[in-house]
Amino acid sequence: MSTALRERPASAGTSNGGVPARRAVIRWSWRMFRREWRQQLLVLALIVVALAATVVGAAVATSTPPPAGAGFGTAQDMATLPGGPQLAGQIAVLQQHVGRVDVIENQTVAIPGSINTYDLRAQDPHGAFGQPMLSLVSGHYPAGPGQVAVTQGVATTFNLKIGDTWHQGGQVRQVTGIVQNPQSLLDEFALVAPGQVSTPSQVIVLFTAPPGINAASLGSLGQYVVTRHDAVASNPLNPETIVLGLATVGMLLIALVAVGGFTVLAQRRLRSLGMLGALGATDRNIRLVVRVNGVLVGVVGALAGAILGLAGWLVYRPRLESSAHHVIGAFQLPWIVIGPAMALAVVATYFAASRPARSITKIPLVAALSGRPAPPKQVHRSALPGIVLSVVAAALQSYSGKSANGGGAPELVFGIVALVVAIILLAPFCLVILASFGRWAPIAVRLALRDLARYRARSGSALAAISLGVFIGALVCVLTAQRYGNVLDYAGPNLASNQVIVYTPNSGPLGAGNGPGGSSTSGTASTPQAQAAVAQDIAKALGSNTVIELDQAGASLTHAAAGRSWSGPIYVATPQLLQAFGIKASDINPNADILTARPGLSGISQMQLLYGNGNGPGGPGGGGHGPQDVGSNSWPCPKGQCLANPVIQEVGALPAGTSAPNTVITEHAIHTLGLSTSPQAWLIQTPHPPTAAQITNARATVAAAGMTIETKNSSPSSAEILNYATVFGIAIALGILAMTIGLIRSETARDLRTLTATGASSFTRRELTAATAFALALGGAVLGTVAAYVAAIGYAWDNPLDGLSELSNSVPIQQLLFILVGMPVIASVVGWLMAGREPSAISRQPLE
């Protein structure tokens, strides 16, 4: 008996060959994947990069915010008690009710010569609940009254190292170690042994209340108690949810590009798939070939992307710790996001391959064996569903914008998703519009636009992917311009890099007196003349002769309407100040009350200049700002305390920094209102930005005089954010466009060979590619920008802080022009330069 007869016959289904047929088809698909990996490298690279970016982005997004329940340690409850004589009794009552407690005492201390502060902290390093809030970097913890451990920032400020003797607050202590708060690296403090803070300004008591004990059962102490659950629930924005939503959008973008990739791959395999059908494979088997290929691409890309993302995270983690200001574990990754993202990559490629899988089985067997693609079907789709979804997305954005504290997070996320779907539905309709403009174009341009409209299944997904990339960049540009363009609540850097402000003892950006950010009035400079001399000495040490006295007149601006209120100082437009910035007296309106560098401030109605007893929420020269000031000022204001609708003149020569004299009151207004002035600060403009050593010496000088200084902070300017967002959006769009052009040109290689055989020159080939690139880039730029403004207008419609007026007055024209004009031009030029090569094998179709 032969071996064949001994073998058990394979069981096959009557319709599709059963399991053996599917297994054979899967093995064949795997061999094809290994053999043609170069042809699939484009889709693979997309998935790898997108998933690696998702892994790093998810880790950054979830690790950048402080840890959930930061400040609680291992406790479930926290009481924050103010200092005072009743403190010991309050702690005893808490201990009586809840049992074991961990007491952390803090006393805020001003850094001499600086607007910054640090805490003198008494904490037990081995306390019951506070151990996660304290770690030792080097040395050892303080163990007695004459010892102290400091954070690295305090050590740098006071030039301390382990073993040094530190004279602080009348006490002499030896530095025993360097410590940190792992949950907040910005927490600058000097750690002493428990009981060594004599007059704490704030005491934190950590505890875990037993069952049945809540804030209400603690009586009057309940007002100071916060639970960990309440603190975590108070943040409505969940970074993991947002990142997973962004990952979903990213995978959708990948699917849109992958549709074109798998369509071209199926076209290349058309003759092979036809041969498979001729051998008896059913339509289901053929569809399985393409779908298995999509799953293989998704799995390989997901694994490679996860590995690449993990490597990138390990490299970037130390830098993120310094910028996020808390310790982050090496494998502290949001696996609940990374796992679904990998699954989404596989699902996205499966569904992307399903469409060409269904299409390929509809081609007749003879046509497939000849390698002849099926003629495109005319699909007439209405733009109405996309428009309706855009309106729904705008409505959801409007609802989320009503809550100034971020309470509309679900509506915000669903609105963005609806807008993304609207972009996908509108992309094919945009191709029809582009084709209609090609009627009067040259023949090559007309052919390119006609092919885009005919093969909308391929080019529509590409246009949607390009539009999504532009949408992200344009939306960041629009929202940034809106926020930074708010002339009332000014945002951005405080000073130029070559500017330094020296404040008198009772002034400064954070308040006066001995509180945080202030400085005591004790010092060697007790008169305005002596303080001015200190400013002159600092300017001389910085190599500058430009010292501008900044006077204030006890006046502030307010806005008696809904929206953001005024923020920033108002100084006096003295002749010295105007001359320092090159402003001539003839350039000023004699009736002007306010001069400002803030564009658009002169056109705002219901402005009020408060003076006398109506100094406004920010005190003399200040101004409140933030959501709590929305609609807080009455209109019209009382006479004798306020000037309604002062005459405001815009002068671009004034500096633009938030702490600089960007808005000043004229001497005309001072004389008319009978105000008195007094020096509050001195602005020093240096030829070069001061070094760290010069700033340290300047702080020591002003500290001895009881004064403070302010230098440039690290806040980004609007131009930096706008430029980065523009480059980001264009880079994504051009990358997708380059991939798309490669796919389209490879699928239309037959037509290109026909054109070349009939005498078409390299100029015609360049025209085809350049016109295709220009049309897709232009359509993506327009559709993405329009979608960005739909989202921005919807969010600003009922927003109490940043409304439609700020959006309309702050249009990033330069960046939008670069997107709408520059990107299509760049795409067409690159397409023109890269498309001159003559196709191979003009006389016959190459075998794939």
Give your account of this protein's structure.
The chain is α+β, with helices and mostly antiparallel strands. It is built from 24 helices and 21 strands. The strands form 4 sheets. Strands 1, 2, 3, 4, 5, 6, 7, 8, 9 and 10 form a 10-stranded mixed beta sheet that branches. Strands 12-20-11-21 form a 4-stranded antiparallel beta sheet. A 4-stranded mixed beta sheet has the order 14-19-15-18. A hairpin with a 2-residue loop joins strand 6 (165-168) and strand 7. Helix 3 packs parallel to helix 9 and helix 15 (456-484) packs antiparallel against helix 20 (718-747). The longest helix is centred in the middle third of the chain and has 42 residues, at 283-324. It starts with a helix and ends in a 15-residue tail after the last helix.
